[in-house]
TrEMBL record:
One of its GO terms (molecular function) is carbon-sulfur lyase activity. GO terms for biological process: transsulfuration. GO terms for cellular component: cytoplasm. The modification N6-(pyridoxal phosphate)lysine is found at residue 213. Its cofactor is pyridoxal 5'-phosphate. The lineage of its organism: Bacteria, Pseudomonadati, Pseudomonadota, Alphaproteobacteria, Rhodobacterales. This is Cystathionine beta-lyase/cystathionine gamma-synthase. Keywords: Lyase, Pyridoxal phosphate. The keyword Lyase applies. InterPro entries: Cys/Met-Metab_PyrdxlP-dep_enz, PyrdxlP-dep_Trfase, PyrdxlP-dep_Trfase_major, PyrdxlP-dep_Trfase_small. Belongs to the trans-sulfuration enzymes family. It comes from Tritonibacter scottomollicae (Epibacterium scottomollicae). Pfam families: Cys_Met_Meta_PP (PF01053). NCBIfam families: PRK05968.1.
Amino acid sequence: MKDHEIQHFSDLDRLTEPLIGPETAMPHDASSVPIFQTSSFLFDRYEDMAAVFAGQSDRYIYTRGNNPTVAELEALIARMEGVEAARGFASGMAAIASAVLPFVEAGSRVVAVNNLYSDAFRLFECVLKKFGVTTDYVDGTDTEAVLAALPGASLIYLESPASWSFTTQDLRAIGAEARRLGVVSVIDNSWATPLFQRPAEFGVDLIVHAASKYLAGHSDTIAGLVAGPKALMDRINHEAYHYLGGKMSPFDAWLVLRGMRSLHLRMARHCANGLALGRALSADAAVTHVRHPAFEANPGNACLSGYGGLFAFDLDDSVDIARFTNALRVVKIGVSWGGPESLVIPAQAALGLSGAANVFQRFGTPAGSVRIAAGLEQQEALVEDVLNAIEEGRR
Ligand SMILES: Cc1ncc(COP(=O)(O)O)c(C=O)c1O
């Protein structure tokens, strides 16, 4: 297995600058963004209200639409992703649903990459299907196959790297062809964050974040964001955002903003801890596959300038998965990722997920696979914990 070099770490210096202080002047010269925990904003006069209703003024009216704390985060993510506008949502899933819905209608066809996030898969299979929107799944590492699936599609849904397979897509080739054909491209960029991948630079239209993960970074909030060109964000504003009502709350926006002030430091650590674990696991006799972009050549690896700490590895039959999992001490058992603590999900448990449309069964996730989110712990302790647990898990 080849350990690819992390090439552009100097980008971190350039990108940390916008995180240091508020995007706009704060009341009382506050050094960080206050929480505007208010539902409604008052008008002095009738004329002020009438001007807002007529679209002649864009001042704050009601927090389900706009809120100053949330607006700070929206401006920050738009700037970091290098796009014109952004919107905050109550969760990553609210962001994903709102990024997709305006661009499909009955009879539309969506193209999505295999191994997409489990609930995004369920959005396509359990919700959109009911309204006559079909989804074709393609192997995102087969660029020719992705391009061949685009003609006639309304939207292409990307995740690079994809959940559980952690395989990457050639964003430049797919973004260019989608744009040529008028297919809206959407990518979930939660894993890389704009510090390690800026999909708009490669021609992808809309960028979605589960801000619950690395952006917020402390396992204490659920939040989502969509960023993109003004024309498409206007479609989202007018055809989904206000009416679905999944608005990010001021308090959640404040938590994400606070988390993002240390994003560069945390991402460097998640990246290093993930690579250290990946290296140690590659050398372990019981590990048959390390699913991490640094350890596998795939078409979109060149789009990444660093790595998230989330990846998967496959254990052979010599290890009992339950015993391995229970032997972990530093690493905890839990869903989600992006917080300070390292977490595992064994595929054996995920394959048994109740309810319709099981993404793990659909894309054949091996029962011996384990997803691990490398947290911020001391590196040697983390590596030792996982290697010890493999030893203890031996049948
Ligand atoms: C890759 C990815 N995208 C999106 C989401 C959804 O985010 P949220 O839980 O904030 O709705 C998740 C959540 O686990 C995820 O892992």
